[in-house]
Amino acid sequence: MERLQKVIAQAGVTSRRKAEGLIKEGKVKVNGKVVTELGTKVTTNDEIQVNGVTVEKAEPVYFLLYKPTGVISAVSDDKGRKTVLDFFPEMPERIYPVGRLDYDTSGLILLTNDGEFANTLMHPKYQIDKVYIAKTEGIPTREEIKRLQKGVKLEDGMTAPAKVKVLSIDKKKQTAIVQVTIHEGRNRQVRRMFEAIGYPIKKLKREQYGFLNLIGMNTGDIRELSPKEVKRMRALAVTQPS
């Protein structure tokens, strides 16, 4: 048996916290009866409705996709562009991406139908490292790299300190390959960080999320996370400093 709000969150209806609010407001029914008690536990045989809509209880699935550039990190796109779900044409479960990667950014993105898992990983208080490899226009100086490491001011505030390492430079082409590790999840954050110091990014890839990486994978490849990896990702989130 599982707590009602957890089952609602795992079904991808909403976050567990919002599910608790819906229960308190009397908007959730179990087997046709309104339930307002947060401690209520349900089984797989119970019928759950939220705002009159039956919750489909699918088995949780967890996937890692090596997203190519030119793909939207969304379940649909009104402009008809390719989305991450196009890589899962035979998937019966309703899955969705955990966070986002920009249209022009390639790399590691997770997809799941487990709402609680997704919300835990995306919660700002859980500082899970994300590692990016950036190719810059121009070669940042040591002082400018230190600015990124300490945090730079963006229009939505200062960034947290980052780990930044120059992997290689090409003096002839005036480009650099830089590894950046951040734990925040602001929109286009890495690109904006480099723009703030005057070095726009020509190419960007997220190659690691927590301990998960892209080793042995090519763009467009998919693999399912093992139960051990799912458990470890949950543990990684809840043990991070807030």
Descriptive overview:
The chain is of the alpha+beta class and 242 residues long. It folds into three domains: 53 residues, RNA-binding S4 domain (Structural Genomics Hypothetical 15.5 Kd Protein In mrcA-pckA Intergenic Region, Chain A); 91 residues, 2-Layer Sandwich (Alpha-Beta Plaits), CATH 3.30.70.580; 80 residues, Alpha-L RNA-binding motif (Alpha-Beta Plaits, 2-Layer Sandwich). The chain is 22% helix and 30% strand. Strands 7, 8, 9, 10, 13, 14, 15, 16 and 17 form a nine-stranded mixed β-sheet that branches. The chain has a four-stranded antiparallel β-sheet with strand order 3-2-5-6. Strands 1-4 form a two-stranded antiparallel sheet. α1 crosses α2. It is elongated and about 70 Å long. The two termini are 30 Å apart. The model has no long low-confidence stretch (mean pLDDT 91).
